[in-house]
Structures are given as C-alpha cells and as structure tokens.
C-alpha cells in the first residue's frame, strides 16, 4: 500500500474499526472515545495521511470547501424546474462563502456515491433534497457525524429540516376551494413513501375537518405512477360527478392536462383542476391553473445558510417557511357544465 494512496478505508482496515469511526476521529465530530481518536491520529501521522490535500498535523481544522447536494434517481425531467431553483439558491449562498457544490446521485436506497465522498473526506457537509419515510441517506449521514440538513420534513426529530410549510399551504388552498363551493374534491398523488405526500395529504384532510365537510376517500388516489393509471382515474371521476380534482404537484397536473386535451375534456367546464405545486411547466396552460406558488430558490438559500452554520458548529433550528401564495385561477371557476 503506497502512502500516496492511503484512504480512510485503509486506515479503518488497519485499525480494525469502521470507516465512519475514522471519519469522526479525523473531523473531530461525533461521539467517539479518546483512545480511538488517539489511535487514528497516531496512524495518520505515522503514514503521513493528508486529508483534503493538507499537512496531516493540521487536518482537524481543515475544510474542503465542498458540499454535496443529493439528486434522487426517481426524479423525472419534468421535475427539473424545482431542483434547478433549489440548486440556484444553494449555489448562490455557497459561492459567496467560497464553496463548490457537488451533485450526488441516490437511487432508491443505493447510497454508494454519497458514502464514498463522505468516507473519503471530500466534502464538509450535505444537503438532502428529498426525505423518505424510511430514510437511508439521513441514517447514514447521522452515523457518519458529517453536518447535513434535509430539504423537506422528516419523522426524525434529530435531523435538521428546512421546508416550505406544505401542510398549511395545502390546507389553505383546499379550504379556499371548499369555500367556493367545491365539496366533492378528488385527489391524485404520488408515492406514499415520500414525506411530502403525507404532508400534503394531511393539509388536504385538515381543510375538510375544519370546514366540517365529509371527505369521500373513494375519490382519493395515491401511489399513482403511470399515465394509464391517471387516464383510468379521470375516466372514473367523470362518471361520479366531482366538483374539483387536485393534483399533488405540477407533474400530475401537466399529465392530467395532456390527457384532457387528447380526450377532448375541457378544463373548468368538464373538469375543474388545481395543483398543490406551481412551476413554469404550468405557466402556459389555458385556462390558468389554480395552484400553490412556492419560492424554491429561497428554500435552497435557507438550507445552504443553515448547513454553513452547522459546518461552523453553530446552533441551528428547523425552519418552516411561509413563503407561498395561493393562486386561485380560471381552472377552478364555478361554471355550468354543458
């Protein structure tokens, strides 16, 4: 083993400890015994290990000035506007502080890319851009001791979370529609394994509870993942006389609009439509789509500033951002169907 090729994995094998333990000893973060820290330090100095390209004697205080932002493998190209805006906010903040941003791909629970750059000491922190019910990436990052924040909500109170207030926003939009006279509202959404799906659905249900209006669960459809499934749902909904259809996000709304065009279904006249998320994808829709407008660029910026605070060992708190607007538009106007 050449000294110039010494890695954290090599140190872990030589000392009979985990790579996470070595990372914690090198970074000085995380709970680890003094005896283990001393063993790692001695090995590092003996073999002249140089994390981040610096002298080993000063490794504890050095930073890479790199962070990682995760990209989920199940993102579709249609979701790019959201990620681009979030990433723009992150890069603007990090660039001002002299940091570069790396993108790390996560596919399902396969976190090898993220694990590698953490274990090899290539980054100072991580921003996760999606949270799951059983979140493998956040569990790994917690065990590694590296600073990280999640964009989105998490069931784990120990994870720093930066999110738009989707619960309140979805409650507010649904309440506005109920107030307009829409009592039978159908809902189409994605994976129930995503925290965002649970949050949006919770706000939707709360609006019915507050208004003392009965929610018909037979017109609620989650885990919808194909265009054919959406088409089948639309065909069914047109036979049961609903007042409005809400899509969980712009991806579903755009698919519904395309199917309606192909099937000669008129938005507003034949089907009233709203979305719990707005983006440039819906900007050219005619009629204009009732939706929730979030400031995703600001979301990324706040997440970046929070991560910088964690990297600098400052105290941080979860943030629930209220920067959204309910946009009531022509797609949900109450008109006579004919």
Automatic annotation (TrEMBL):
InterPro entries: Cro/C1-type_HTH, HTH_LacI, Lambda_DNA-bd_dom_sf, Peripla_BP/Lac1_sug-bd_dom, Peripla_BP_I
Keyword terms of this UniProt record: DNA-binding, Transcription, Transcription regulation
Annotated coiled-coil segments of the chain: none
Keyword DNA-binding among record annotations: yes
Domain HTH cro/C1-type: 5-37
Superkingdom of the source species: Bacteria
An example molecular function term from Gene Ontology annotations: transcription cis-regulatory region binding
Residue ranges of domain HTH lacI-type in the record: 6-51
PANTHER family to which the protein is assigned, alphabetical: HTH-TYPE TRANSCRIPTIONAL REGULATOR GALS, LACI-RELATED TRANSCRIPTIONAL REPRESSOR
Name the UniProt record assigns to this protein: LacI family transcriptional regulator
């Amino acid at each position: 083993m050449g000294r110039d090729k010494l890695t954290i994995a090599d140190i872990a094998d030589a000392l009979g400890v985990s790579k996470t333990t070595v990372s914690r000893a090198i970074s000085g973060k995380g709970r680890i015994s003094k005896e283990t820290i001393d063993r790692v330090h001695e090995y590092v100095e003996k073999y002249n290990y140089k994390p981040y390209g610096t002298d080993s004697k000063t490794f504890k205080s050095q930073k890479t000035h790199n962070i990682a932002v995760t990209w989920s493998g199940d993102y579709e190209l249609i979701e790019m506007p959201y990620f681009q805006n979030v990433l723009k906010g992150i890069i603007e903040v990090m660039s001002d502080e002299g940091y570069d941003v790396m993108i790390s791909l996560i596919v399902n629970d396969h976190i090898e890319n993220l694990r590698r750059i953490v274990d090899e000491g290539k980054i100072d922190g991580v921003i996760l851009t999606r949270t799951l019910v059983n979140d493998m990436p956040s569990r790994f990052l917690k065990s590694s001791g590296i600073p990280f924040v999640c964009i989105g909500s998490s069931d784990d109170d120990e994870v720093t979370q930066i999110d738009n207030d989707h619960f309140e926003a979805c409650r507010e939009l649904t309440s506005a529609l109920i107030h307009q006279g829409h009592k039978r509202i159908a809902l189409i959404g994605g994976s129930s394994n995503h925290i965002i799906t649970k949050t949006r659905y919770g706000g939707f249900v709360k609006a019915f509870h507050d208004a003392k209006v009965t929610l018909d669960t037979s017109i609620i459809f989650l885990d919808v993942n194909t265009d054919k499934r959406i088409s089948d749902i639309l065909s069914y909904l047109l036979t049961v006389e609903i007042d409005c259809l809400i899509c969980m996000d712009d991806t579903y709304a755009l698919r519904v609009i395309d199917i309606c065009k192909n099937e000669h279904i008129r938005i507003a006249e034949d089907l009233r439509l709203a979305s719990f998320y707005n983006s440039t994808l819906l900007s050219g829709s005619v009629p204009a789509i009732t939706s929730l407008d979030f400031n995703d660029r600001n979301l990324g910026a706040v997440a970046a500033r929070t991560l910088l605070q964690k990297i600098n060992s400052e105290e941080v708190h979860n943030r629930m951002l209220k920067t959204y607007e309910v946009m009531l538009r022509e797609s949900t106007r109450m008109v006579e169907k004919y």
